Amino acid sequence: MMIDKNIAKETAKKRVKELKGYYSHITIFVIVNGILYLLKTGVLTSLLPEAFPKESYYYDWINANVIIWGLILGVHTLILFRDKFTFIKKWEQRQIQKYMDEDGGETHK
């Protein structure tokens, strides 16, 4: 009984650590890309040093950054909440069964 509680506690700690990392990822995503968009729109231009490029075309890469980072954040979400997405669990079960069936067929040869 005590072992079950220890396992449950470790599992809970791991889950909290994963959630904390996920929320940090979202926070950093919003802050960094918010600042980048403020640079792109010219709101922060007055705070930039003289030698820093201020033309808007210089910041065209920011859109690609948001899309790519957003996709990465989406994957992070899928991984973190994998138990909520039953299609992933069903796929995993089908793959496990497939490989078990294949291995079972080879051992009978």
Calculate Rg over CA atoms. 23 Å
Q: What is the domain total for the residues? A: 1
What share of the residues lie within helices? Answer: over 70%
Strand content: under 5%
> Could you describe the largest sheet, including whether it forms a barrel?
none
First-residue to last-residue Cα separation: 44 Å
Oligomer description: single chain
- Number of helical regions: 3
Specify the structural class. Answer: mainly alpha
pLDDT averaged residue by residue = 86
Number of strands: 0
Point out poorly predicted stretches: none
Shape: elongated
Q: What is the string of SSEs from the N terminus onward? A: HHH
Protein name: 2TM domain-containing protein
Pfam families: 2TM
Organism: Flagellimonas lutimaris
Keywords: Membrane, Transmembrane, Transmembrane helix
Give keywords.
109 residues, 75% helix, mainly alpha
Set out the fold topology.
Layout lengths: L1 H40 L19 H20 L5 H22 L2
InterPro entries: 2TM_dom
Protein name: 2TM domain-containing protein
Pfam families: 2TM
How would you summarize what this structure contains?
This protein has 109 residues and is an all-alpha fold.
Could you characterize what this model shows?
By secondary structure, the protein is mostly helical. The chain has one domain (2-82). It is built from 3 helices and no strands. It has helices spanning 2-41, 61-80, 86-107. Helix 1 (2-41) packs antiparallel against helix 2 (61-80). It is elongated. It starts with a helix and ends with a helix. The mean pLDDT is 86.
